Structures are given as structure tokens and as C-alpha cells.
Amino acid sequence: MSFRRAVVRQSKFRHVFAQAWKAEHCLDDVRVTRVTWEAPLCVANPKFIALIVEAGGGGAFLVLPLNKSGRVDQNTPTVCGHAAPVLDVQWCPHDDNVIASASEDCTVKVWQIPDGGLKAPMTEAVVTLEAHSKRVGILAWHPTALNILLTAGCDNMLCIWDVGTGELVYQLSDAHPDLIYSVCWNREGSVVCTTCKDKALRVIDPRRGTVLKVREKAHEGTRPMRAVFLSDGKILTTGFSRMSERQLALWDTRDLSEPMAVQEMDTSNGVLLPFYDPDTSMVYLCGKGYDEVVTLRAEFGTVHMSIVHEAEKSIQSMESCRIL
């Protein structure tokens, strides 16, 4: 007589939940930018939180100590050296006082924030990077190499800079026929994955200037896609189906012919922005009208994607959660 033991999959994240911060721990009266651009409005590191804000006659962002809470005075000093709205800001992973900003003025600027935050408006950048002919909306610091920054603009061009010298190290201008939606380094910093308006997912070696892998129509929909590298080298993409359903897909970079897994989410126009935490292998998804925590699990040769918690949180809250 034989007995078959039932196999019950249990996730170690099954008890994960999100809790909204109390009002006294939140930031109030922040005049965030009204510029339409599918990107987070804030980024945080262990010292500061930076928020892109409205500015008359140029572009600006706030830099506040991470422990700051309550009302933000309208006279709070800003970083305000751009001639047009700021589209993206990213903290350097190797120096908590260094931040890069990208703008509609076609430039990228790198700033040195003093300990304790700003006491007066900052207008002079440490270095200004100029090579793009159209607005710049994507920044990605190299995960392991000091002072290496990747930028992508609406001129469909990728640039890699040494911000220590201001030198343009590599330039890739013919890999994308249309607008670049997202760029992400892998964990080692040897390749990047990109998504583009042509619906293709690409794996690129930027130093050699070559496209290693291409997956046409990674998602069938016409709305923007996003892609992030996971710690094991796989790629997670967010996009839309032909019927405008929001989707998640998991890809093996060795073979992009078919996704390892696809999950339909819901029907909405809001682009899903993925934030990956390599320490827990958790992905935070944020978008208009949709905030959930998703885990990826691979075992016995199969891949399982499960939504472990749904919470009403803003992109700003998720960015702070990812850091804290």
C-alpha cells in the first residue's frame, strides 16, 4: 500500500504586508512636478530623499534628510541648475551624497549634496554632461564601477560617462529605432537590458556596442514597457497585452524566444514601474491605480510568480519602503 504525500508550496513571504505610515511621519505640501513622464518622482538612499518639484523658468528637485517629516516649506532650498524641467534623478550607489539629474534641457548634471542637506539653493553642478540632442529621461548608475553613469535620451541614444572626468566613454546610437522606455544594468554591470517603443526587449553589451539578444514584441500592447534584471540574471518585464491588460513576464537571457512565465494583472492605462530588491528577491510594482508586492520563486525547474500583498501606496511610498 502506498501513500502519496501532498505537496503544498509555501512562500516565506506569505505574511508580507504593507502598512501606511501615520500622518506625522509623512511629507506634506510638496509641489511635485506636473511634467508628464513615466518615471518615479522621488528616489531615496540611507541619508536623503530627493523629489522632483515644480519650478518656474527651469527645473528643480528637493533634497531632504531621510528623517524629515511634516509640512515642507515652500521656501525650502532646491537643486535648481537646469534650464528646463527635470525628468529623472538617481542617487549614486557608491556615494550617498552624490546625485545625478536628467532634464528636458538635454543635459545631465551631477551634484554633491552636503551632509545635513541644503542650506541654500544649489545651482552649480559638479559636472554637466552634454551629448544628447533631445531631452534626457533615463539615468542608470553602474552597480559596481565608481563614477560610471549611463544616460538615455529621446534621441534614441545610450551614453556611458565617467562623471569623475566628464568624459563620454561609450556611445550607442544605432541600437534603438525609437524612443527608449527603460534601461537596467545586470548585477555585475556587464550588460544592460532595454525596452523600446518598437516593443522589443534587448540585451546589450554597451562597451562593445553590440546587441546580444533581441525579443521582438515582448508585450503585444502599444503602451510603454519596463524591464529590470534580477539577481540570477533573468529579466522581469512589465507591459500590456493586445487587449490592454497589464502583464508581467519573466525571461531567461540565454533564450528570449519565449517567456518563462507570464501573468495577467488587470486592465488599466497606468504603466507598471518595477522596483527590485535583490536582498529579498521581491519586486515592488507601482502604477496609477495599482500597487502590489510580487515575489518570484523558481524550484524544480519551474517558475512561480505570486502576488503576496496589495496595498494602496504611492510610488513615493514604495521607493521609501525599498530603501528602508
TrEMBL record:
It comes from the Eukaryota. Belongs to the WD repeat coronin family. Residues 5-70 form the DUF1899 domain. Keywords: Actin-binding, Coiled coil, Repeat, WD repeat. WD repeats lie at residues 79-113, 129-171. InterPro entries: Coronin, DUF1899, WD40/YVTN_repeat-like_dom_sf, WD40_repeat_CS, WD40_repeat_dom_sf, WD40_rpt. GO terms for molecular function: actin binding. This is Coronin. Pfam families: DUF1899, WD40.
